[in-house]
Design goal:
224 residues; alpha+beta
Length: 224
């Protein structure tokens, strides 16, 4: 039993080493490409071009597998053609999509806020419309009352006009009757004045005639 102990320890260490070696790892997607002065590894390196940089391809050498390019800063050199792609890398596309998604979410939140504000304005507009409709109904009722009152006033004015016409007619009739009464009174006065004058004349005549009749009678008696 004592002799097997070292073997056990050794086996344990081997398993531990295997577990350490089996730990997962990923190759970085950040790397740099050498930009050389010529289309071979023997040419000097001018600078290191990071992955994802956009280059302008000036010419390609299919036999050597190199391409002459120009950097955004204006440096020209040669890089391996196999390191060039016709589109952006997946990582950059993912970053762009993530940025666009973030912007879209931000715009979505902004649109949601705008939608909430528009809905609030819509509700407020509906409330104002309801208030205006109530005010309109009240104004229409008041206008109807005013029209009825105006109709009554017109009817009263018509009645007043008719009464005024009747009053004017009655006044004219009264003036006519008063004038006729004055004429009758004047005629009656003249009649009584003429009657009185006639009675005076008759009285005078009788006063003059009666004494003569008496004297004639006495004269007749004296003859007998």
């Amino acid at each position: 039993m004592m002799k097997s102990t070292p073997h056990f320890v050794l086996i344990t260490l081997m398993f531990a080493a295997s577990a350490a070696v089996a730990a997962p790892a990923w190759v970085t997607d950040e790397f740099e490409v050498t930009l050389r002065s010529g289309p071979s590894t023997s040419n000097a390196i001018q600078l290191m071009v990071r992955s994802g940089m956009q280059l302008e391809v000036l010419e390609r050498d299919a036999d050597l597998g190199y391409s002459r390019v120009r950097t955004p800063g204006g440096t020209e050199g040669w890089v391996l053609t196999r390191y060039l792609m016709n589109e952006r890398s997946a990582r950059e596309q993912l970053e762009t999509l993530t940025s666009e998604l973030t912007n879209a979410n931000s715009r979505g939140s902004s649109l949601g806020s705008q939608l909430t504000a528009i809905k609030a304005e819509y509700d407020s507009a509906n409330s104002r419309i309801a208030t205006l409709e109530r005010d309109k109904a009240a104004v229409e009722k008041e206008l109807a009352d005013i029209r009825r009152t105006a109709a009554n006033v017109l009817g009263i004015n018509e009645q007043n006009r008719s009464l005024m016409d009747q009053l004017a007619t009655a006044q004219i009739r009264a003036d006519t009757l008063e004038q006729e009464n004055r004429q009758l009174s004047s005629q009656t006065t003249r009649y009584w004045f003429m009657s009185g004058g006639l009675l005076v004349v008759v009285g005078v005549i009788l006063g003059l005639w009666l004494p003569r009749i008496r004297w004639q009678r006495r004269s007749g008696y004296d003859r007998f």
